[in-house]
Amino acid sequence: MTARLAAAALLLAAGCGSGSAEPASRVERCTERFLGRVAESERQETRRYVETAYCAPFERRGWIYDDGTLKLEAHADSGSQECATAEPGEGARTVPCEALEQESPDVLDCGLLHLVRRSEVKEYVEELQRTREVRCDDGTPLNELGAR
């Protein structure tokens, strides 16, 4: 019995057989970070979309760190055609990014910035603030942006 317990402990320590092992690839770790910002009830249906629309393409471009956080290029160079915006008391709505930039050039599309390393986001925001005052489209305080 002792040998079986030791073998089971060894398997658990290695992450085998527990079902709770760390994700194996950058794409999986990226996907898990995205899903951390999604309601539990929506995660299963969202997983494949996040993986194929965001994380796999970002990995091909080299925009994911080993821990699953994103490089700033994922935000800056992803070529997003749609941005989210919301007025106080209203739900978020999707608009062309170009329209949002023309309407209010001080509003950042912060969706991906939540998943970029905090140090990179801080530097990026400080650079933007040298020439203008900026804020997040989702109301997040700028000092709370970025992944740890």
Structure description:
- The chain contains 6 helices and 4 strands; from the N terminus they run ααααββαβαβ.
- The chain has 148 residues and is mainly α.
- The protein has 2 domains: 47 residues, no CATH class; 76 residues, no CATH class.
- Strands 1-2 form a two-stranded antiparallel sheet. The protein has a two-stranded parallel sheet with strand order 3-4.
- Helix 2 crosses helix 3.
- It starts with a helix and ends in a 12-residue tail after the last strand.
- The N terminus is likely disordered.
Structural key phrases:
6 helices, two-stranded antiparallel ribbon, mainly alpha, two-stranded parallel sheet, globular
Question: What order do the helices and strands come in, and which of them pair?
Answer:
Elements: H1 2-13, H2 26-35, H3 43-60, H4 72-76, E1 82-85, E2 93-96, H5 97-103, E3 107-108, H6 118-129, E4 135-136
Structure summarized in a few sentences:
With 148 residues, the protein is mainly α. The chain has helices spanning 2-13, 26-35, 43-60, 72-76, 97-103, 118-129, and strands at residues 82-85, 93-96, 107-108, 135-136.
Question: Fraction of residues in helices?
Answer: 40-55%
Distance between the termini: 42 Å
Across the major sheet, the strand order is: 1-2
Quickly count the domains: 2
Give the SSE order as H and E letters: HHHHEEHEHE
Overall morphology: globular
What number is the mean pLDDT?
Answer: 77
Unreliable spans are 1-20
Structural class: mainly alpha
Rg from Cα: 19 Å
Number of helices: 6
Query: How big a fraction of the residues is strand?
Result: 5-15%
Major sheet attributes: 2 strands, antiparallel
How many beta-strand segments?
Answer: 4
